[in-house]
Automatic annotation (TrEMBL):
Gene3D superfamilies assigned: 3.90.1010.20
GO cellular component, one term: membrane
Record protein name field: FMN-binding protein
Domain FMN-binding: residue ranges: 54-126
GO terms, molecular function: FMN binding
Length: 126
């Protein structure tokens, strides 16, 4: 009886862990063709801009606040990310460098790429 319980637990762990791994791999492959373009902040008027992108299973919606051609803040309104919550740290790099040309967050490549694309979409009105 104990052996069956242990086998059952192992099977559930493999299924659950394998599912998470499959989502991670699928997310990474999904965004490999996503191109994040640079944005000329001097051409962006002061204001608040909303941008989003949906590439299941990773989705993001952001609000970007621009003042005097400077990104003052980026607020994540929605981020469905699977394992990529730490990808949200990419916004710190964008604000610090005032550019979308920043490295993605290791271990959260898909999420940080999607967030960067959402920021681009906000600034370009897409």
């Amino acid at each position: 009886m104990l052996k069956k319980i242990v086998i059952g637990i192992v099977v559930l762990l493999v299924i659950f862990g394998g599912g998470r791994l499959a989502i991670h791999v699928m997310s990474k492959n999904l965004v490999k063709d996503v191109v994040v373009s640079s944005v000329d902040l001097a051409s962006i008027s002061d204001g608040e801009y909303i941008g989003a992108i949906s590439m299941e299973p990773v989705n993001a919606e952001v609000k970007v606040i621009v003042e005097n051609s400077i990104i003052k803040d980026i607020i994540i309104l929605k981020h469905e990310h699977g394992l990529g919550e730490k990808g949200e740290r990419v916004i710190e790099n964008v604000i610090e460098s005032q550019s979308l040309e920043v490295d993605t967050i290791s271990g959260a490549t898909a999420s940080s790429t999607i967030i960067l694309k959402a920021i681009e979409n906000a600034l370009l009105g897409k």
